[in-house]
Amino acid sequence: MVERRHPSPRLWPVFLCAMPMLALLVIPLIAIATASSPGDLLEGVNHPLFVPALWLSARTTLFSLAIVLVLGTPLAWWLARSSGGRLRWVELMVDLPIVLPPAVVGIALLQTFGRSGLLGSTLEAFDLQIPFTTVAVVLAQVVVSAPFYIQSAASAFRRVDDDLLIVARTLGQSPAGAFFRVALPLALPGLIGGAALCWARALGEFGATLLFAGNLPGTTQTMPLAIYMALESDVRTALALSLVLAAVAVLLLFALRFAPSWWSRRRISVISGAGEDRNGAPR
Q1: In order of start, what are the domains of the chain with their CATH numbers?
Q2: In this predicted model, what pLDDT tens digit does every residue of 250-275 receive, in sequence order?
Q3: What is the DSSP string of the chain?
């Protein structure tokens, strides 16, 4: 029988020292949850800013997530399977948007896709304008959120046993077949976690979007930008939008905590069931 461990009495002084940090993290969340009455929240939801910003955020973040999944998964697989000095430089480039201030990312995107930017003349030749459009919102979200997915996906792919891929190849699978039939299912919990973090980062993106896409209602005004604008005139709308974002963050956190364990239990049940027939007898 496993003996249950109890906290050591010596940890109480450490816990007391940790309480200020814990309070600093928790109290603001309690404050925003209790800042308004249900009536005020309902009025904020009915504000003209709310629905357009919510709809724009939903469709742009889902579209940016799809781009990251399609383009970021091959990059994550390459990072997980490669080695050498070049790998460190590629990983540095991938991680750079995480440490760069969002304002710097916004200016960099302007210098890339703006009329006087690096690709400005090429885009102008095709009569395309990206800054201050919905496409600019998606690009800003992709750049700032992609590293979170790529990091998680690469870590998940590194945990895939090479021997399993070799066995799949010896059984006649192509490299693509071994990836989709073996590596992808095994790494799926890490991919889902990375995708959730990526989507949450895109949903909360503010600085790069403001500088690269602007704050145009119905076109580029996402929920964080609507919160910024609503604070100048209607605090209730800002609170309503903030509570929606906070609720999404809580749901994502629960999903990240429980999805891996759920997936592990499901895999165990599938493996256990594979050894028995429908009558419960061993195969």
Answers
A1: 38-266 (1.10.3720.10)
A2: 777 777 667 666 656 665 565 455 45
A3: -PPPP---TTHHHHHHHHHHHHHHHHHHHHHHHTSS-HHHHHHHHTSTTHHHHHHHHHHHHHHHHHHHHHHHHHHHHHHHH--SHHHHHHHHHHHHHHHS-HHHHHHHHHHHHSTTSTTHHHHHHTT---TTSHHHHHHHHHHHHHHHHHHHHHHHHHTS-HHHHHHHHHTT--HHHHIIIIIHHHHHHHHHHHHHHHHHHHHT--HHHHHHT---TTTT--HHHHHHHHTTT-HHHHHHHHHHHHHHHHHHHHHHHHHHHHHHHHHHHHHHHHTB-TTS-B-
